[in-house]
Specification:
Elements: E1 5-10, H1 16-28, E2 33-36, H2 45-55, E3 60-67, H3 73-86, E4 91-96, H4 101-107, H5 114-133, E5 149-153, H6 156-165, E6 168-171, H7 188-202, E7 208-213, E8 215-218, H8 222-232, H9 238-242, E9 247-250, H10 252-266, E10 270-274, H11 282-288
Parallel strand pairs: 1-2, 1-10, 2-3, 3-4, 4-5, 5-6, 6-7, 7-10, 8-9
Helix pairs in contact: 1-2, 2-3, 3-5, 6-7, 10-11
Length: 291
């Protein structure tokens, strides 16, 4: 089994000092990867990761994730390999098709159908690989053939694309939202089904598996914490939430055991939390460091 890796998806703030402080804190807490979100109204992720590289020593830097529909793939390849150079080969490229319709409208970019957005993502992936392999492409990537690629989602098409091209296959752990504007989590069976689908699509190809963790609560009162999560995510019952690897609730020791089971049963070894849970997961990381 692959060793554990832990990432945190940070919201890039307006202040340089605040961003530097958050990146250093993540590294000090034992995280392996610092990710920068890509949304309008936030600082651009590539410059943010270059600054993160200057402020830290060992963490990988991840775009979590770049909206491929917003970029000309040739120019994106330049920005990716340039950032890879400036971060000393520490870049991981997370790439997606975008999911916020309002951002497309604000940018004057056609929202289109899911199939059209997927086609743009697929084109970006194949064009990036072509540009990396082109001896005329500059700047060259530090790691050949290019920075590790993270692709993921929950649909068949994107998981097949990830299985064919990605170094890291990511799972969002979400289900189709039943109510607009409210998070809907996949239940344990649905998530297991998505992982099994991707692993079958991978065949003999080896890839790291990543999971986005939506809730982390380190507490001695697990039932009360699960009741709180249930009020936020009412589509699943408390007992269902207790089974989910996207919901890490309990003592640090219990959550560490939960992650060990998830790695053993699903093969997922790379877990990403949101910024709000940056400090909450730290005692779990400490217990699993090097395992």
């Amino acid at each position: 089994m692959r060793p554990f890796r832990f990432g945190v998806d940070l919201v890039v703030p307006r202040s340089r000092a605040e961003w530097v402080e958050k990146c250093r804190k993540a590294e000090d807490l034992g995280y392996d990867v610092v990710g920068a979100a890509d949304h309008l109204g936030m600082a651009p992720p590539f410059p943010a990761l270059v600054l993160a590289a200057e402020a830290t020593e060992r963490v990988r830097l991840n775009t979590f994730v770049i909206n491929a529909c917003f970029h000309n793939p040739v120019l994106l390849a330049r920005d990716v390999t340039g950032t890879d150079q400036f971060t000393g080969g520490r870049l991981e490229l997370g790439l997606g098709a975008g999911y916020v319709e309002a951002e497309f409208r604000a940018a004057g970019i056609e929202w289109g159908t899911p199939g059209q957005r997927f086609a743009r993502l697929e084109h970006a992936v194949t064009e990036l690989k072509r540009r990396y392999a082109d001896p005329e492409h500059k700047p060259e990537p530090v790691r050949k053939p290019g920075p590790p690629l993270l692709l993921g989602g929950r649909g068949d098409r994107v998981l097949k694309l990830a299985a064919e091209h990605a170094d890291i296959v990511g799972f969002t752990g979400t289900a189709g939202a039943k109510t607009e504007g409210r998070m809907a989590l996949a239940n344990a069976a649905e998530l297991t089904g998505r992982v099994e689908f991707a692993r079958k699509a991978l065949g003999d190809r080896d890839a790291e598996l990543n999971l986005l963790v939506h809730v982390t609560r380190i507490t001695g009162d697990r039932r009360a914490a699960l009741d709180f999560v249930h009020r936020r995510v009412p589509d699943l019952g408390v007992d269902e939430l207790a089974e989910l690897p996207t919901v890490l609730v309990g003592s640090a020791e219990a959550v560490a055991d939960q992650l060990l089971r998830t790695r053993e049963t699903l093969g997922i070894s790379y877990f990403t939390v949101i910024e709000d849970d940056l400090t909450r997961l730290a005692p779990v990381i400490e217990r699993l460091h090097g395992r």
